[in-house]
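notes to self, project folder thing:

trying the whole complex as one job this time. last attempt i did each chain seperately and stitching them together was a nightmare. two parts in total, labels are on each line so i dont mix them up again. if this works i'll redo the older ones the same way
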Amino acid sequence: GQNIDQPTEMTATEGAIVQINCTYQTSGFNGLFWYQQHAGEAPTFLSYNVLDGLEEKGRFSSFLSRSKGYSYLLLKELQMKDSASYLCAVLDSNYQLIWGAGTKLIIKP
Amino acid sequence: IAGITQAPTSQILAAGRRMTLRCTQDMRHNAMYWYRQDLGLGLRLIHYSNTAGTTGKGEVPDGYSVSRANTDDFPLTLASAVPSQTSVYFCASSDGANYGYTFGSGTRLTVV
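result (full assembly):
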């Protein structure tokens, strides 16, 4: 079966750095997405990785290793507004998105 | 403002009633999707449509139906609601799967 694993919840301090990991086992791979979802709101696009390596976008970076079935989202200089759930999703061989359950990130002052 | 509009925002529905959740996009995206999101679970695909006139079943299609008469609209119908269909429903669209999805603001449905 297809499976995406990410931690259920993480806690970090304002101003610090946090890394949210995602491992996947899917039938085929056509890219990996990270989305941010604030409580009671819709998911919004953060990043897309299809090749191995690190993609940096401001305070957020996303890394992919296809051989290891692994990705992480790195958030730097954490702000209180970064408190949200972070969803990992993989585009499978049929170009369908398979979603992880999400990681709830709690930022403390 | 370009995007996806869902209606209603929230609804309390008696079990056994029929309900249609509306979804309209103005981005001219070919593909549209309906997901449900439940606490502790990832987004689960109910139905999808790759282009107007075609639809397909997702991971959890039972009890739901969709239609795609034109590019902009993709309504989701619950023929006879049951309490297990209590969830938050998101409509999404895409201009090509590797460009990511744009989501509507969601419909919070409670079936009692």
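what i see at first glance: The mean pLDDT of chain B is 94.
need to look closer tmrw
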